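Contributing new complexes? Match this layout with protoporphyrin IX containing FE.
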Amino acid sequence: MLWIKAFHIIFMVTWFAGLFYLPRLFVYHSEPGVSAESARRFEVMEKRLFVITTLGALLTVGFGLWLLVGWFWPPPLWLEIKLGLVAGLIAYHILLGCLVKDLRTAPARRSPAFYRVLNEVPTLFLIAIVLLAVLRPAF
Ligand code: HEM
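Output block (do not edit by hand):
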């Protein structure tokens, strides 16, 4: 069980590395005056990073479900709340995927400031989910 938990955490770090870095790339990509060549490079980086981030997400969820079914079923309330937050995080992940496509067709549609604000969202999820998983509060 501890091995599975260890891999759950390792892939969670991979997932979050992408969730933090993708909107950063979006900030640079959407800045005015980016040349066509740089824009093409950003597109390639964003696409590749999104693939790696998605792999991290799938493996985190896979190992998490293994833990859930194997040792934590039926889930206590803190874990149910955590799963609700994970659903929100997956929605955010999907949004980033849509923005990768959007930046290819219309890079100037949203401002760099929009992506800077977006960049703060995963921090909130990370703090809430890790606090729930580690402290296991009895509500
Ligand atoms: C569908 C997705 C997920 C499922 C089903 C899931 C399920 C679980 C389960 C059953 C455990 C074992 C309970 C425990 O030992 O505390 C666990 C541990 C943990 N999870 Fe997840 N999890 C998911 C996603 C995440 C995400 C996105 C994060 C981070 C943001 C995360 C962070 C952790 C951490 C840090 C632990 C270790 C807690 C400890 O040992 O004190 N999990 N997860």
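Reviewers usually confirm one structural detail per submission. For this one: Residues 36-71 form the longest helix (36 residues).
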